[in-house]
């Protein structure tokens, strides 16, 4: 599978790069550092406080209006 490294945009092929989808260990560690420093975040929770799956944003908005 051909792809581009999400950090440096170099072409990457899953058959030849052991760090796929990254081109190197350096890019893999940079991505990990971005998550650790909260540069990347998950924008909405997948589950609510009771452990049930959170409703989709449009559905939630309609329920709040009712």
CATH H-level superfamily: Erythroid Transcription Factor GATA-1, subunit A
Largest sheet: 2 strands, antiparallel
CATH architecture call: 2-Layer Sandwich
Strand content: 5-15%
The stretches of 5 or more residues where confidence is low (pLDDT under 50) are none
How far apart the termini lie comes to 47 Å
Which percent bin holds the helix content?
25-40%
Give the CATH topology: Erythroid Transcription Factor GATA-1, Chain A
Task: Provide a short characterization of the protein structure.
With 66 residues, this protein is of the alpha+beta class.
What does it look like?
The protein is of the alpha+beta class and 66 residues long. The chain has a single domain, classed as Erythroid Transcription Factor GATA-1, subunit A (Erythroid Transcription Factor GATA-1, Chain A, 2-Layer Sandwich). Helices cover 32% and strands 9% of the residues. It is built from two helices and two strands; from the N terminus they run ββαα. The protein has helices at residues 25-36, 57-65, and strands at residues 2-4, 11-13. It is elongated.
């Amino acid at each position: 599978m051909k792809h581009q490294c999400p950090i440096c945009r170099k072409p990457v092929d899953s058959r030849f790069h052991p760090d796929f989808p990254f081109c190197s260990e350096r890019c893999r560690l940079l991505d990990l550092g971005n998550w650790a420093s909260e540069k990347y975040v998950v924008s909405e929770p997948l589950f609510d406080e009771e452990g049930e799956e959170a409703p989709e944003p449009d559905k939630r908005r309609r329920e709040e209006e009712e």
